[in-house]
Amino acid sequence: MLAIVEIAGLQYKVEQNQKLFVNRLKGEKGDKVSFEKVLLTIDGAITVGAPAVEGVSVQAEILDHVQADKVIVFKKKRRKGYKVKNGHRQQLTQIQIVSIGGADAPKAKKATKKETTEEVVAEEKTAKKPAAKKTAKKDTED
């Protein structure tokens, strides 16, 4: 089963037992975290959320907190004697996807959606058609 999930403001394509690096999360090494904002699931059939799939969540375990490679930020203005050199190391969390669960809820939602469309169609059939407008002719006398 695949899912697209939003973690710390970014979207990731995940599957079970996958390891990935995400922006720093709260929690200690070995803690379990759950992500409820699942945007899409693929399990034989594709389920797309609007904006998120209800009843589906992704559980993960925090493996480690690490730092990314250093990125050098260098600014210079020519002929002005202005040079600034800074470095940055992004704080990351390594997680492992434990499970993607709760896929039964969207199927129930589809059934209720189908029922509501059938009810709307039935109401449209029973609704009366508007009466045709009668045009009044004016008697003009000269």
Keywords:
142 residues, alpha+beta, 4-stranded antiparallel β-sheet, 10 strands, 16% helix, RNA-binding, Large ribosomal subunit protein bL21, rRNA-binding, Ribosomal_bL21_CS, ribosomal protein
Describe this structure in words.
The chain has 142 residues and is of the alpha+beta class. The chain has one domain (2-106). Helix content is 16%, strand content 47%. It has one helix and ten strands; from the N terminus they run ββββββββββα. It has a four-stranded antiparallel beta sheet with strand order 2-1-5-6, with no helix packed on it. A four-stranded antiparallel beta sheet has the order 3-10-7-4, with no helix packed on it. β1 (2-7) and β2 form a beta hairpin. The termini are far apart.
Please summarize what this structure is.
The protein is α+β, with helices and mostly antiparallel strands and 142 residues long.
Roughly how many Å apart are the termini?
A: 84 Å
Helix content: 10-25%
Structural class: alpha+beta
What order do the SSEs take from the amino end to the carboxyl end, as H and E? EEEEEEEEEEH
How would you name the oligomeric state of the polypeptide chains in this document?
A: single chain
Number of domains: 1
- Backbone shape: flat
- Uncertain spans, ≥5 residues at pLDDT below 50? 103-112
Q: Given the structure, what is the number of helices? A: 1
Radius of gyration of CA atoms, rounded to a whole number: 29 Å
* Total beta-strand segments: 10
Secondary structure elements and pairings:
Blueprint: E1 2-7, E2 10-15, E3 19-23, E4 32-35, E5 38-43, E6 45-48, E7 57-67, E8 71-77, E9 82-88, E10 91-101, H1 104-126
GO cellular component, one term: cytoplasm
Function: This protein binds to 23S rRNA in the presence of protein L20.
Biased composition (Basic and acidic residues): 113-127
